């Protein structure tokens, strides 16, 4: 199986949780050594946001803030790569052709951001498209996609399946500032829409959820086309 997993910023807290990183790396490493091709995309998390906020206060434009965000996502990717040990490719790719080239080598490819104007969710969608992934798992700090923001509204309900067009409508109404790309930015969704990549949103709190989603089990929210 060919898979891409986006590990959301929630995994990379200000005080980095090496126990959680090791646990998730262990589960994903087992999946990869069972003969599966795996590409991992690391989000930016609290540290990326802190740097972006500071840069903006100091007068940086949004593209510069994005570039700083990318550096932090790459630092997170390095941590994951280290946690994976010899299962992972030693180089963090910085463009899509490198992703496609490295993915065929039998080792896990780990990367962060690629270019300004998008989130690591777009990176994950592009990586899934170029590696012809059978599945894309987007792991965040909530169980999936909700009717409302579950952190703000107690009435929010988990949606088991959601059409890509609906996600696109929501994304178009959201913001596209550095550090504030919403659940999925429009570019990420446009890529999913054109490549029709089987995608699931799950929680990363339990790595078992991610593995179940990779095996096609009913967990979290499925994107339909
Ligand atoms: P993300 O916003 O994707 O990180 O990248 P995240 O923490 O995983 O976000 P959630 O958890 O999905 O919400 C951090 C920042 O890095 C820049 C953007 O500014 C982004 O907000 N970035 C990342 C880019 O500009 N280009 C990329 O390809 C990736």
Describe this structure as you would to a colleague:
This protein is α/β, with parallel strands linked by helices and 225 residues long. The protein has one domain (2-224): Carbamate kinase, CATH 3.40.1160. Helix content is 44%, strand content 16%. The chain is built from 8 helices and 9 strands. It has helices at residues 18-33, 45-57, 62-84, 96-103, 120-130, 164-173, 186-195, 207-214, and strands spanning 2-7, 37-42, 109-111, 135-140, 145-146, 158-159, 161-163, 199-203, 221-224. The strands form 2 sheets. Strands 3-2-1-4-8-9-7 form a 7-stranded mixed beta sheet, sandwiched between helices. Strands 5-6 form a two-stranded antiparallel sheet. Strand 1, helix 1 (18-33) and strand 2 form a beta-alpha-beta unit. Helix 2 runs antiparallel to helix 3 and helix 6 packs antiparallel against helix 7. It is globular and about 45 Å long. The mean pLDDT is 94. The structure holds uridine 5'-triphosphate. Residues 8-10, 43-45, 48, 52, 65-66, 69-70, 73, 113-116, 118-121, 123, 140, 178-179, 181 line the site of uridine 5'-triphosphate.
Features:
225 residues; alpha/beta; seven-stranded mixed sheet; binds uridine 5'-triphosphate
